[in-house]
Amino acid sequence: MKAAWYGENGGPEVLHYGDIPDPEVGPKTVLVRVEWISIEGGDLLNRIHAAPSSDHHIPGYQAAGIVEAVGNEVTRFKAGDRVVAFDWNGSHAEFFAVPEHYAYPVPEGMDLRQASIVPIAFGTAHDALFEYGGLKAGEFVLVQGAAGGVGLSAVQLAARAGAQVIGTASGEARLDRIRPLGLEHGIDYRNEDIAARCREITGGKGVDLVLDLAGGKGKDLLVKALRPHGRYSVIGAAEGTLPSFDFFELIRKAMQVTGISFGRDMHTPRVHQLLEDLFADVASGALVLPIEREFRLSEVREAHEFVATQHPFGRVVMRP
Ligand SMILES: NC(=O)c1ccc[n+]([C@@H]2O[C@H](COP(=O)([O-])OP(=O)(O)OC[C@H]3O[C@@H](n4cnc5c(N)ncnc54)[C@H](OP(=O)(O)O)[C@@H]3O)[C@@H](O)[C@H]2O)c1
Predict the structure, then answer these.
(1) How many angstroms separate the CA atoms of 210 and 284, rounded?
(2) What residues does the Enoyl reductase (ER) domain cover (predicted)?
(3) Which of 31, 125, 137, 274 is most deeply buried (CB count within 10 A of its CB)?
(4) Which helix (H) or strand (E) holds 118?
């Protein structure tokens, strides 16, 4: 099959495209003929920071397509079914082999291009806000990286739950595009002081919950923006560098820091039901996630470069 792979960490230039053996189908495996690959923020983070599994490590968490074959112990899917598939790597390819519990049916009427971008963005946002973030109506939530895939999902889910949503993005024009989705207070992280703006917006109290999608040096300002006993969801590091927390920083505010790993929960019945509900909301138009641009998988370097440097609004997808 055709696939993209790398054998060392680095920028988009470490990516190669060409022929590679097809994945094997075990007894519990669903083999998907990929139609659309969603480039997830984590695909870039892994390429930079996570050691590749081999010289021909196929990256990528998520893709949608048609079931080509199933293992003899698979009960929920058959050849021809439309699914979105998740795994810790392997989506940047013509075929994506995943355990049955990481395959999700696509509702009738939803196209596979749209479906390919739903689970991780909306599911991660949901869990960081509610399942582990404990967000309640009336509370202030600060979404750092609000114009990305997880960020746009979080803004919508938090707003419809009655929270007051503060979000950051690079520039007023981007913030203006997020406002109709539920953003009440926009902060341009490039030239505004996030902590000062949050103090002003919350009447000096500080925000109740932070969703940190960017990591890096920005983390210090997010900690400052938080109220005492506030909650901080560590989700991503889209800025490219990994933050860490200081002992006194944690106890001074008695802050609750929660690491989010949506992938760890994606096999569970809870998440299967959650994704069914989120798919229904996307199908009805109650939730939206724009796709900024499409590439061919053969253009994988350009596609990753575009995501890393061109500030797409929402997602970028590729076709094998
Ligand atoms: N832990 C988990 O379970 C989990 C699940 C999904 C994703 N993630 C991680 O979450 C992060 C976001 O994922 P995604 O898919 O939403 O990525 P994405 O679509 O590429 O969006 C990333 C966003 O980060 C913003 N950003 C970049 N540098 C920033 C900075 N210095 N300060 C503030 N914002 C900055 C960008 O804003 P502008 O474009 O406006 O500059 C962009 O909108 C990634 O690191 C990903 O690995 C983690």
Answers:
(1) 29
(2) 10-318
(3) 125
(4) helix 118-126
Assign 70 a pLDDT band (cuts: 50, 70, 90): very high
Q: Give the model's confidence band at 199: pLDDT under 50 very low, under 70 low, under 90 confident, else very high.
A: very high
Here the tokens at position 30 are 């669903």
Boundaries of every domain in the chain: 2-117+289-319, 120-262
Cut 0.90: pTM above it: yes
Average per-residue pLDDT in the chain? Answer: 97
Confidence of residue 260 (pLDDT cuts 50, 70, 90): very high
CA distance 317 to 300: 10
Best residue among 124, 144, 150 to mutate for probing ligand 1's pocket (most ligand atoms within 8 Å of CB) is: 150
Encode pLDDT of 28-64 as tens digits: 999 999 999 999 999 999 999 999 999 999 999 999 9
Geometric angle at alpha carbon 297, from 293 and 303, rounded to 5°: 45
pLDDT for 99 equals 98
Measured distance CA(56)–CA(297) in Å, rounded? 16
Report whether CATH 3.40.50.300 matches the domain 120-262: no
Q: Is the CB of 238 under 6 A from ligand 1?
A: yes
Q: Decide whether any atom of ligand 1 lies within 6 Å of the 64 Cβ.
A: no
| pLDDT of res. 79 | 98
| Helix, strand, coil percentages in the chain from 3-state DSSP, rounded to 5 | 35, 30, 35
Domain 2-117+289-319 and domain 120-262 have a common topology = no
Q: Does residue 39's CB lie within 6 angstroms of at least one atom of ligand 1?
A: no
2-117+289-319: what fold? Answer: Quinone Oxidoreductase; Chain A, domain 1 (3.90.180)
Compute φ and ψ for 119, nearest 5 degrees. -60, -55
Task: Give 22 Cα–ligand 1 centroid separation in angstroms.
Answer: 31
Q: Kindly state the average pLDDT of the residues 117-124.
A: 98
d(CA 84, CA 86): 7
Token digits for 164? Answer: 């007051």
